[in-house]
Design goal:
CATH superfamily of the largest domain: RecF/RecN/SMC, N-terminal domain
Number of strands: 15
Largest sheet: 6 strands, antiparallel
Strand order of the largest sheet: 2-1-4-5-6-7
Number of helices: 12
Distance between the termini: 25 Å
CATH topology of the largest domain: Glutathione S-transferase Yfyf (Class Pi), Chain A, domain 2
Structural class: alpha/beta
Shape: globular
Oligomer: single chain
CATH class of the largest domain: Mainly Alpha
Radius of gyration: 22 Å
């Protein structure tokens, strides 16, 4: 899968922009605050329909303008697709080949991306909600079933939480309706738990060897899945039985709190180097390298499941790595994987990686290919 062209209209600091991209490495060079990250944000937005920097999408629109458009041409072995997202105040529209797509689940996965940003390197120290969001983004690209199930789970969860408050304040409220909501929530939770567990197992197949190669270490790195319900097994019936018991046992506790206290919306995962939890005992260097290896390990997962290679987005990651690790990382960015890289300079990048790359200079929203 390759993104051959990207077009922007009134996106961030760009009025009009059209760039043809190399099928392998693309490097955008420039000082800070010139618009390099805006290019990566636009591509990620085109892929996932969400910005990795802002929640309020009207903020993506260039100042004093009413509408922003991001377009991209995606080529794979079987087809060429034109993706488009239009953003207006209070409205977002998705298109594939000029046909409007109503459901996000029908749009996601037409452009597969894995992003590396300085903020991503902090996920070990961040809150569980940040790590859950990363799980949801990546598994949703891998599975339409997961995305649909997760969205349905959240709708039921919201209704169940609202009804807990109704039951607390109104003794005549229908408890049978609440039990129906709980059964529906459990059925969706089973799928989410299983798919998250399977995904983390796939990550663990490669993450340790990648860590050892890039970090020149013999230590073993693994992710540990940490749901807030302890399961002896992740078989469907056993998950279902355990959740039924948990919700019955904690009914009054949830009633008093006015919210659902157990389920995949409270999940977490941790990074362990040997038997050491890196959030508690890891150095900053170990934490950043571990997250980077986690991201790289996803490449083979997408290849295995979707039979395509993802587009890699590197936002100023090189400033976080020494020269040795930087060039070891680039070994994973081979000719058959497309990458978009932003950096302030290319002095410390091995020349052999630059020979076939497109290099773009970014100055105050103007882009010139060098």
């Amino acid at each position: 899968m390759k993104l051959t062209k990207i077009n922007l209209l009134n996106f961030r600091n760009y009025g009009r922009l059209s760039i043809s991209l190399n099928k392998s490495m693309n490097i955008f060079i420039g000082d800070n605050a010139q618009g390099k990250t805006n290019i990566l944000e636009a591509i990620s937005f085109l892929s996932l329909t969400k910005s990795f920097r802002v929640i309020n999408e009207p903020d993506l629109i260039k100042f004093s303008k009413e509408r922003a458009v991001v377009k991209g041409k995606v080529k794979d072995e079987n087809s060429i697709k034109e993706l488009e997202i239009d953003v207006e105040k209070g409205k977002k529209s998705l298109f594939i080949n000029k046909t409007q797509i109503r459901r996000t689940s029908d749009y996601i996965s037409n452009l597969i991306t894995i992003s590396f940003t300085p903020d991503d390197l902090e996920i070990i120290k961040s809150s569980p909600s940040v790590r859950r969001n990363i799980l949801n983004i990546q598994i949703s690209q891998l599975s339409k079933t997961y995305l649909i199930t997760y969205n349905e789970y959240n709708k039921i969860l919201k209704t169940r939480n609202e009804y807990l408050k109704t039951l607390f304040s109104n003794s005549l409220a229908d408890k049978n309706y609440f039990d129906i909501l709980t059964d529906k929530l459990i059925s969706k939770a089973v799928t989410i738990y299983k798919m998250r567990k399977e995904y983390i197992e796939l990550v663990n197949q490669n993450i340790s060897s990648i860590y050892q190669k890039i970090g020149s270490s013999k230590e073993k790195l693994v992710l540990k899945y940490e749901p807030n319900v302890e399961f002896s097994s992740f078989e469907d019936e056993l998950i279902k039985e355990k959740l039924i018991k948990i919700y019955k046992k904690n009914y009054f506790k949830e009633l008093n709190n006015g919210m659902t206290l157990f389920g995949p919306h409270r999940d977490d995962f941790s990074f362990y180097l040997e038997d050491k939890n890196l959030k508690l005992y890891g150095s900053q260097g170990q934490q950043k390298l571990s997250v980077l290896c986690y991201k790289i390990s996803e490449i083979s997962i997408f290849e295995k499941i979707l039979k395509t290679k993802p587009l890699l987005l590197f936002d100023d990651i090189f400033s976080e790595l020494d020269i040795k690790k930087r060039n070891k990382l680039l070994k994973y960015v081979q000719e058959d994987i497309q990458s978009i890289i932003t950096t302030t300079d290319i002095k410390n990048i091995n020349k052999k990686y630059l020979d076939n790359a497109y290099v773009f200079q970014v100055i105050d929203g103007n882009i010139i290919r060098k």
